[in-house]
Amino acid sequence: MWKNWSRAEAEAVFARWTQAEPERRRxxxxxxxRTDGPALDGTLDSLRPLNxxxxxxxxxxxxxxxxxxxEWVWSESTRIPDSLRRLTDLAxxxxxxxxxxxxxxxxxxxFSTTDSRDDRNGLPMLDLGWPANPVDVFVAANGGATSAxxxxxxxxxxxxxxxxxxxxxxxxxxxxxxxx
Length: 180
Description:
The protein is 53% helix and 4% strand. The chain contains 7 helices and 2 strands, in the order ααααββααα. The protein has helices at residues 7-19, 21-34, 47-61, 82-102, 137-142, 145-151, 159-178; strands spanning 107-110, 124-127. It has a two-stranded antiparallel sheet.
């Protein structure tokens, strides 16, 4: 469980996080408008321009020392500034919106498994209709921008789209195999 939270603590953080989703969505749209960002129209085709734009915003975030780590962040590392973690939080909301446009029944879950070693326990994840395998949209939303900026790794502008395509392909395979 994150930060050694109890299940009740994880559920409370999850509830606050999901209730703040409209505010994160608004904040992302305002930031994109203010910085000549991409059209955030909820389509799969919007993910490449989003990722390219996130790379530049991530570079800016690396020099922004404004405190305010999202509550869900489990790492106490200072290597990644709070501003970059907040940007990932905003991007995750958008990636979830794109996935929900593809899978209208998708909804947030506070991940839970009986395996206490599973560090996803308590993590906000998106259930696309495959409850045993919800999506960690934070990983997909990173799109390599954080790694490129923090570690100097090569940046792939299509990384978010490719992650989303893999997620949707895996879901289609699951449905085909399970008859649903």
